[in-house]
Specification:
With 91 residues, the protein is an all-alpha fold. 64% of the residues lie in helices and 0% in strands. The longest helix has 21 residues. The protein is rod-shaped, with a radius of gyration of 23 Å.
């Protein structure tokens, strides 16, 4: 990856600077930037992977509606599920 992302005439220092710029431009906060080119690539990919994991774990509006519909159809006699959610989560 350290060779695929850059032109062949760029030295290691320029490559590391470019990765630092990418990390800064993407507002990636990391406790340690990394001293080697591979460390910085790992930081970049780790942050991108973490972001996609967070995105996939989020509940979309349509997913929320499906959840409410499902819970409404399957719960035992009780207050409507949407009222319970509003009360429990102060929506």
């Amino acid at each position: 990856m350290s060779k695929d992302m850059f032109s062949s005439d760029e030295n290691t220092s320029k490559r590391k600077d470019r990765l630092k710029s990418l990390i800064d431009d993407l507002n990636i906060t990391t406790p340690r930037l990394g001293t080697t080119l591979d460390n910085r690539i790992d930081v970049l990919f780790g942050a991108l992977k973490s972001g996609t994991d967070d995105e996939f774990n989020a509940l979309s509006a349509s997913g929320f509606k499906e959840l409410v519909d499902f819970l409404s159809a399957t719960t035992v006699p009780a207050p409507p599920i949407i009222d319970r959610l509003r009360e429990d989560f102060v929506i």
